[in-house]
Amino acid sequence: MTDTISFSQEVSNLLYAAEGEPIKTCIQCGTCSGTCPVAGYMDYTPRQIIAMINQGMKEQVLESNTFWYCASCYHCTVRCPQDINITELMYALKRYSIWKGQHKEGLIGPTFSEAFVKMIVRGGRSFEPILAPSYIFSFGLRELLQEVTNATELLLKGRLPILPARIKRLDNFKRIIGRIIPMGGLE
Amino acid sequence: MTKKLLMIDDDPDFVAGIKAILDNAGFEVEVAYNPKEGLHALQTKQYDLLLLDIMMGRGAEGIMIARKLRKDVKLREMPVLIITGMREQIAFLFPGEPIHPRFVEVDELVEKPVEPKMLIEKVNSLILTAETKKAGKK
């Protein structure tokens, strides 16, 4: 058989400009977990996730909600004494789980990303009334009502568009997308 | 003489499978697990064919490699077989639409999962056409 690579190496390969394995240099100080504003809602804290990646616990890492809850505030990255780009690591894990089609059920993250990207590719701009259904039904009844009242108020004040805004020269924009992602019948 | 192939793909399981098929067919396969290493290997060593994945690293980095190859005078002639699973990986974006290849002059596109027989056939024919082209130029 061929010599294969470890899970941590696999993740490192997904990081931007990764030289070697930055994740392996983690000293488990816990600064990232201490800094993280959403650590309380995560299955495992960022420090634990890094330790699990280094141990090759692939299934548990992909099953966790940690990287989907990351708010991308970059505070962990700024404070990390070993200069590990933890936010980038979270993005890498998101990519990895979407490409492999393996993620926890009932998460908002994947469906929201999908709806958002689809919308941008089609119309060039974000349009909230269509974006909302991708996550709004995962709320409880009270939160749902709260969201609806908020939306109505925004609408009445003219802060929420009723019709989706279109950008100028949408064809050019689509051509740009086609250059980045080689799909879409472009010739 | 055994043909030397380079494979750039980030999925270790897929690489193991394809490498086993090509090893049995008598090719010498080298593997780079990330685009950076792959590009470095391409620039420093000589290969007869490149097997290239699209979705790597930060996104479609395989395309970036293909574009760099196209601009490189030395590497432009090398046949490239693009093996991609990107239709499944970002299926939600453009359902049912074709992937447009043509990032390098001599290339062919195969989608994952790959049929072993077809793979070997394609590899052989690509190397052959590249060699006849080279001989014709000289």
Question: Can you give keywords for this protein?
Answer:
heterodimer; A: 187 residues; mainly alpha; Fumarate Reductase Iron-sulfur Protein, Chain B, domain 2; 2 domains; 12 helices; 55% helix; 0% strand; globular; B: 138 residues; alpha/beta; Rossmann fold; five-stranded parallel beta sheet; 17% strand
Structure description:
- The complex is a heterodimer of chains A (187) and B (138).
- By secondary structure, chain A is mostly helical.
- Chain A has two domains: 7-100, Fumarate Reductase Iron-sulfur Protein, Chain B, domain 2 (Orthogonal Bundle), CATH 1.10.1060.10; 108-180, no CATH class.
- Chain A has twelve helices and no strands.
- Chain A is globular and about 55 Å long.
- The model of chain A has no long low-confidence stretch (mean pLDDT 85).
- With 138 residues, chain B is an alpha/beta fold.
- Chain B has a single domain (4-137), classed as Rossmann fold.
- Chain B is built from five helices and five strands, in the order βαβαβαβαβα.
- In chain B, strands 2-1-3-4-5 form a five-stranded parallel sheet.
- In chain B, α1 links the parallel β1 and β2 (28-32).
- The longest helix of chain B is centred in the last third of the chain and has 22 residues, at 116-137.
- Chain B is globular, with a radius of gyration of 14 Å.
At CATH level 2, the architecture of chain B is 3-Layer(aba) Sandwich
Number of strands of chain A: 0
β-strand amount of chain A:
under 5%
Give me the strand/helix succession of chain A. Answer: HHHHHHHHHHHH
Strand fraction band of chain B? 15-25%
Oligomer: heterodimer
Structural class of chain A, by secondary structure, is mainly alpha
CATH C-level label of the largest domain in chain A:
Mainly Alpha
Instruction: Using the coordinates above, name the CATH class of chain B.
Output: Alpha Beta
Mean pLDDT across the residues of chain B is 83
CATH H level of the largest domain in chain A: which superfamily? Alpha-helical ferredoxin
Low-confidence stretches of chain B: none
> What integer is the average pLDDT of chain A?
85
CATH topology of the largest domain in chain A: Fumarate Reductase Iron-sulfur Protein, Chain B, domain 2
Mass-distribution shape of chain A = globular
The first-to-last residue Cα distance of chain A is: 41 Å
